[in-house]
């Protein structure tokens, strides 16, 4: 670990805080993130369409990808209808097993990968696994039948997600709002624009590939 840390310091990825004798990420890490974002053809296609939907519907729109047992936002455009304390930005991580993003990914993930993740979630959960496991299976069935799944893992926030499968990776699009309305009503309101967004993004990616 010490050698690895020194290597990261030497390459400019970590900085040493002389006062606290601890390490922090260096500016070079931000440049790596910027290079990833600007080099992603998925983001290039999806981001303008996501912003258009967010502005027209006044909803939050996100694009995420899996990283180990979490989902990482690649893009997050926030247009909350109500004032909320939670803000989501690019690079933010959310639990895979609790969120619509994660459950949509699990619905289409390769079977060995899905089983390994489920086993990991079950092992580390102090709370009863059965309700969460059933919710994941229900989400999987909903994705198969209707193309999306929904979750409300935080109070008064409803999110609907749909997988975006590309030849290189699996991404997930989601839309969400802060509301006190019933989950079923909100889901029916959000699923149509979400699925239309996925179709537009897929068409854009197909056109990019055909060039």
UniProtKB/TrEMBL annotation:
The record, for Gene3D superfamilies, names:
3.30.450.40
Domain IclR-ED: residue ranges = 28-211
Which is one Pfam family of this protein?
Answer: IclR_C
SUPFAM superfamilies hit by this protein: GAF domain-like (SSF55781)
Q: Which domain of life is it from?
A: Bacteria
Q: What is this protein called?
A: IclR-ED domain-containing protein
Originating species: Variovorax defluvii
């Amino acid at each position: 670990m010490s050698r690895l840390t020194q290597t990261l310091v030497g390459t400019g990825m970590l900085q040493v805080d002389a006062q606290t004798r601890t390490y922090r990420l260096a500016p070079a890490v931000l440049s790596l993130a910027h290079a990833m974002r600007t080099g992603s053809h998925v983001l290039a296609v999806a981001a303008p369409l996501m912003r258009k939907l967010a502005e027209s519907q006044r909803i939050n729109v996100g694009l995420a990808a899996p990283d180990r047992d979490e989902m990482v936002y690649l893009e997050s455009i926030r247009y909350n209808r109500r004032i909320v304390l939670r803000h989501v930005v690019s690079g933010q991580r959310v639990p895979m097993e609790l969120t619509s993003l994660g459950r949509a990914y699990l619905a289409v993930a390769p079977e060995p990968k899905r089983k390994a993740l489920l086993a990991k979630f079950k092992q580390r959960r102090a709370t009863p696994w059965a309700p969460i496991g059933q919710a994941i299976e229900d989400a999987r069935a909903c994705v198969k039948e209707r193309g999306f799944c929904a979750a409300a893992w935080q109070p008064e926030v409803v999110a609907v997600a749909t997988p975006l499968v590309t030849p290189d990776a699996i991404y997930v699009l989601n839309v969400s709002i802060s509301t006190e309305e019933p989950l079923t009503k909100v889901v029916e309101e959000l699923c149509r624009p979400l699925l239309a967004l996925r179709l537009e993004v897929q068409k854009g990616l197909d056109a990019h590939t055909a060039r």
